[in-house]
Amino acid sequence: MTKIITNNHERSFLYRSEVPTDILESQFDYLDADTFVGFIHYRGHWYHTSCFMRFGYPGSVPFQGWHGYSSDSFYSGVLIKISDDGETYQIATYIS
């Protein structure tokens, strides 16, 4: 049984200028300097939309409605759902 934990709040993506320089240099050195938006700070960890894998097909059970995931372990990770306009997102933790 997979458990999805979220508060269903819409959040705005963070800009590059809001990410600490040491985090940019250590975790996101692969991004071009002109990548300005798409950063997320969730539960003490930094993510960029490029950190998430898309699901292979729509309606992936049990993650129906979510657009992508980033695994923490074999049994847990983070889910993301991006709004239709691409300006906001919802985020969740999943545990199997």
How would you describe this protein?
- This protein has 96 residues and is mainly beta.
- The protein has one domain.
- Helix content is 7%, strand content 40%.
- The chain contains 1 helix and 9 strands.
- It has one helix spanning 21-27; strands at residues 3-5, 11-12, 14-15, 37-42, 45-48, 53-54, 68-71, 76-82, 88-95.
- Strands 1, 2, 6, 7, 8 and 9 form a 6-stranded antiparallel β-sheet that branches. Strands 3-4-5 form a 3-stranded antiparallel β-sheet, with no helix packed on it.
- β7 (68-71) and β8 form a beta hairpin.
- It is globular and about 40 Å long.
Structural key phrases:
globular, 7% helix, 3-stranded antiparallel beta sheet, 96 residues, mainly beta
What share of the residues does DSSP label as strand, in percent?
A: 35-45%
The total of beta strands comes to 9
- End-to-end separation in angstroms reads 6 Å
Q: Structural class of the helices, strands and pairings?
A: mainly beta
Q: How many DSSP H or I helices? A: 1
Order of helices and strands: EEEHEEEEEE
Return residue spans where pLDDT drops below 50 for at least 5 consecutive residues.
none
Mean pLDDT: 92
Instruction: Calculate Rg over CA atoms.
Output: 14 Å
Shape: globular
The residue fraction in helices comes out at under 10%
Q: What characterizes the major β-sheet? A: 6 strands, antiparallel
Number of domains: 1
